[in-house]
Amino acid sequence: MEDGRIRLGRGAIEAWIDPKGAELKALRKDGLPYLYEGDAPGFWPKSAPLLFPAVGRSTGDAWALGDGRVVTMPRHGFARDCGFDVLSVSESGAVLELRASDSTRTRYPFDFRLVARHLVDAGGLHVHYRISNEGGMPMPFSFGLHPAFRWPIDGVHAPRESWRLRFPKAFSAERHVIDADGYRTGATVPCIDGDRHALRDADFAADAIVLRDPPFSSVRLECDDIPTAVEVRFTKASWIGFWTQPGAPFVCIEPWWGVAACAGDSGRVEEKEAIRWIAPGEAEAFEMAVRLE
Prior knowledge:
1 helix; Beta-galactosidase, Chain A, domain 5; 6-stranded antiparallel sheet; 9-stranded antiparallel sheet; 293 residues
């Protein structure tokens, strides 16, 4: 560990994990950084936060629960700002855990356990997440991943405008419009038609590209000029977002099992779109693999 961060390595692959938020902070191959390391002045300072127990914005930044209570729920939840306990560390793997506490119960009155298992192998990184309900009542939640990859990965040999997202098969999809306050408007506009999408800053002038029920479980960030690329594979997601700040040296590939509220939604958690429920004593698992080429 260095500065509290955990280093994992296997052959040419190196990963760094911060116990704060169990956040992946670096992912490199032969010293080349594939993950954005939050190091561009004036831009987003994170790298790959976990989104739990909310994805996106909730109505009034709060949840109205079925028993009449209203609790504060910040955008993307609170797990990304919590200190995780480190359960085990080896040369190539680490297991971190976040459990419900007096502090979390003031915002989310449910007894949860979130475990993140990281494993570096010769091709990249695999992470397994398990969310369990250790309480006595059904537990509502959303979960999401928010990794940011360098765009361009290798700017010396492949300029920014040569990069694209490529999908396993061709499809057509409309993006869900996000307003200036971070809510979905309910409107959609044409976006993707084919098996690839050229990256342009103009795509992100009005926030993220947000797609419902994406017909894929992997995405590549690639270009024609060099073989360097990254592929992100994930458990089948109900939504996906692609996001950056125009001009920033990164693009996020974000599988979500949840989504931001629509403007004007009631705020009742049982009516929030894509909310998931775990019965007492049950658990749900999610996975992500990042392959570096």
